[in-house]
Amino acid sequence: MKRIFLFTALFVTLAPLFAQQPLTWEEAWQAYVTGDDQDDEDDAEDYELLAQLADHPLELNRATREELEQLPFLSAQQVMDLREYCDRYGPMRSLGELRMIRSLDYHQLRLLPFFVCVDPEAEMADTLRQKPQPHVNLLLTGRLPFYDRRGDRNGYLGYKYRHSLRCELTYGRHLRVGMVGAQDAGEPFFAGRNRWGYDAYSYYVQIDKKGVIEKAIVGKYKLSAGMGLVLNTSFSLGKLATLQTLGRQTNTLRAHTSRSEADYFQGAAATLAFGSRSAHKPLRLTLFASYRPIDGTLDAGGTLTNLTTTGYHRTKAEMARKHNTHLTAFGGRMVFTKGGWRAGLNGVLTHLDRSLQPSATVLYRRYNARGRHFANASMDYGYMHHRFSLSGETAIDGDGAVATINSASYQPSGQLAIVALWRFYSYRYNGLYSHSFGETGAVKNENGGFLGMKWNPLRNLHLQAYADYARFPWARYLVSRPSHAWDVLLQTDYQWRRWQLHARGRMRLRQRNSSALSGSATDGSALSGSATDGSVLSGSATDGSALSGLPAEALTANNTYRARLALTYAAPAGWSAKTQVDATRSVYLYIRRGWMLSEQLTLHRPAWQLSALAALFHTDDFASRVYLYERTLSHEFGSTSFYGEGLRLSLLGKADLCRRLRLTLRLGYTNYFDRPVIGSGLQQIDQSHQTDLDLQLRWRF
């Protein structure tokens, strides 16, 4: 109680004394789509895409409709309105003109300036045919831990330092060449199987807007098409993002520039645009071919049982899985647009050099992808009106299983928008590159409906709400029979002069196996065709719902309730202060609770920036964990979860050493009050606290 009292007294005393610095795009994005489960890989990938877009902002006056559609926070109506404004009123002279576009709301107006720019002299430069100048961006990042894990002393093949290298050359608007090298802590560097240095490399050559070629990439790249039922390795479709964009389809081809070793292609891809000489060409054709190594888990007989996407190669067992399988894929997309109508065809063929055979005795994996050859095809479609829009995609796999998703939105005014979405993903459907809207993001074993609304009843009051229902007709991980889930969220932002109030509540009602079931595995995976009472699980119904033999009480409630309240005070003095309170309540067999109190203070100057964060947290267990966003290095994900009882402190400093050189340092410290060690296994730290120093050097020339 003494710690809580001192922490609260500090916040109340200091918060009103500071003023807000200009917002970063990371903070604006957090306010835009922030959920509660923010530490997964999809969110890190989203951050990488946005970091890439922020490094290469679009020039609004010359951006095509297809280029604007790369911005994942714009709806189809907003993209159309941006282009129409520039066509009707001529080139924008400043970003202040964005406020003249009525369909852009509070969140888009905060985000757009980070990803677009206005250059009135650009058209003149093109007219005079000035020779473009090459630009190089070099980024060096490293992490120094002031502690040892057990694996660092005995078990890991490399040292404990994590580091990466990014280098990109741009030549005008038409050429980009880049390379990324990444090393996780514990992986060998210039040793063993990593004799060429980094554990993972990404490389690319990208050509933009050269004749009929809209974009072409050789190297590693990502693709998304339609609504993701066949192809989406580029961007996750979160629920708040879906609400903001009113269910807009995503169609992108971009270079793979992240540290991740999952969800990318390696080879060549190109988008060709055909039609009139106008900025918008009605027919586009994307073709790609890929051959890449992947990690897989092999059984004793050498059969591939699972594809591994963690990218970790720290131990002998992990290194043995590195690139032991190869994947070949090729396919394409053809899309035709005219007026408000859009229709597209998508297809991909995949071959594995090992036969994939997941365990059939594990109930929730029974209908997972298996074999060497896979095929997927789909049709996506849409119609856009200035008041409403319709869009959808229907897909089929090589075994005839079907998945479909359809959405409709209605915007009667600039203050109100409503979106509804319905999806049906067969439990037999499999797509190796499928990621779309849903409770889990996987295009499999899910049916449901989503209804969302955003409303600005007052100029400074912004409300968002959604309700999503999902039914799972087949078993899932930790769930051994058909189940369902509800996800409900209400969020509001209110601005009054220099104050900003953010409040959010979220309720997730799910089901899970009861640990009281004798004979059932705690992970819900080992119900190998027999019920606990000895009767046989039928599993033979075509809708996947007749898993008879299990007692009715096999599932129990697994509910999570989260709330957040944040207050920011702003004044024109270059300071910022943000006070935030988080609370969680988890119900599974018994009730667990958690809370966190955090404060972030920032001082901003033209040549340097200093930011400090302190957070005190207390949760009963991992299920009641809390999430904290903190400022971090460029191209790094800044959200982490905490559980137990402890204190988190971090200090971030940025300084421009000269016009082209920037140094960023972040010192992070976490102290747990309720445990003598942190982690387990080879990751275990034999003390109750840990300190890390992150360094980043950025050189532009």
Task: Give an account of the 3D structure.
About 10% of the residues lie in helices and about 45% in strands. The protein is built from ten helices and 30 strands. The strands form three sheets. It has a 24-stranded antiparallel barrel. Strands 1-2 form a two-stranded parallel ribbon. Strands 26-27 form a two-stranded antiparallel sheet.
Specify the helix fraction band: 10-25%
Q: Say how many strands there are.
A: 30
N-end to C-end Cα span: 53 Å
The largest β sheet comes out as:
24 strands, antiparallel, barrel
- Give the overall pLDDT as a whole number: 84
Structural class: mainly beta
Can you tell me the residue ranges where pLDDT is under 50 for at least 5 consecutive residues? 2-21, 516-546, 548-553
Beta-strand percentage? Answer: over 45%
The radius of gyration computed from the alpha-carbon positions, rounded to a whole number of angstroms, is 26 Å
Shape designation: globular
- List the total number of helices: 10
